[in-house]
Specification:
The chain has 293 residues and is mainly alpha-helical. The chain contains six helices and two strands; from the N terminus they run αββααααα. It has one domain. A two-stranded antiparallel sheet has the order 1-2. 23% of the residues are buried. This is Chemoreceptor zinc-binding domain-containing protein.
């Protein structure tokens, strides 16, 4: 249950005051909301009446956005590097596979070459075959380890990317709250294909995870999120908007936002479960990032 729902009953009388709407600010975990006056003005006052507190709170939100953006960009670079290492490991594994196949072919030809060999040549042939057997066994082990390593690195990179997407979603949501808090029409784009999560979903996300049920659920939740945003923006732009209706729209947005976060956590679980649990060697565990609510 969101902070808006929890505290709605206690706000009813305050929100109906004429003139300016007084609304407390919350950090749950985000700082929620200060709304426009019922008459459509732009004046914003917190319950304590301390405008300095509002300024401090707004600066905290701005600073948090900068930090989230920096963290997301850094994590995205780490994701790119890990993906590159996974690609290199897969290339090496393919190269080892080619060598093993050549060894199999050479060993087969040596085994079939019997009649024309002298006893001494036959002894050397047997030594070479034994050496090839050892090389084949070791190379197959290397190939297997490279494949598992590449898969584990790639899945960990995917998990990191999902965590970045959650951070980007939090940043997107705070932009919405800050627009309401400041009383300015600076909302993110309403088109679900224009935000960072939407572009990832239709591109790289669909390519890598399109068959996973959690990915489908994420798409459904993301679509509802932008519908909720469109409804909020429409209400915000009304000439005679009311705080009560805006609160209702924010309540819906908060609820759907939690559904998006849950879907991202489920996608993270699916990636780790499919890619690592089945193929990792005994004793090797890959930790997923903790879910955020």
């Amino acid at each position: 249950m969101s902070a808006v729902t929890c505290h709605r009953a206690g706000w009813q009388n305050i929100l109906k005051q004429s003139g300016t709407v007084y609304l407390p600010c919350y950090f749950n975990p985000l700082l929620l909301f200060s709304l426009l006056s019922a008459s459509g003005g732009r004046e914003l006052i917190v319950t304590s009446g301390d405008n300095a507190l509002f300024s401090m709170v707004y600066r905290m939100l701005q600073a948090k956005q900068v930090h989230v953006l920096y963290t997301a960009e850094k994590a995205e670079k780490l994701y790119s590097g890990m993906s590159a290492v996974a690609d290199e490991n897969e290339t090496m594994a393919d190269g080892v596979t080619g060598l093993v196949n050549q060894m199999y072919s050479l060993r087969g030809r040596l085994k079939n070459k019997l009649g024309t060999l002298t006893p001494r040549e036959r002894r050397y042939r047997n030594k070479v075959i034994a050496l090839l057997n050892g090389l084949i066994d070791e190379n197959e082990k290397i190939q297997g380890k490279l494949t598992v390593s590449a898969n584990m690195i790639r899945c960990t990179a995917y998990s990191l990317q999902v965590t970045v997407l959650k951070a980007i979603h939090y940043q997107w949501r705070e932009r919405v709250y800050m627009s309401v808090l400041e009383g300015k029409d600076t909302f993110p784009a309403e088109d679900e294909n224009q935000c960072a999560l939407g572009r990832w979903y239709q591109g790289e996300g669909r390519k890598n995870f399109g068959s996973l049920p959690a990915f489908v659920r994420l798409g459904e939740a993301h679509g509802k999120l932008h519908q909720a945003l469109a409804a909020l923006v429409q209400e915000f732009r009304r000439e005679k908007r009311t705080a009560e209706r805006i609160l209702t729209k924010l309540d819906v947005l908060e609820s759907v936002s939690q559904a998006v976060i849950t879907a991202l956590d489920e996608l993270d679980d699916s990636v780790i479960r499919q890619g690592v649990v089945d193929e990792a060697p005994p004793g090797v565990q890959v930790s997923r990032f903790p879910p955020s609510r």
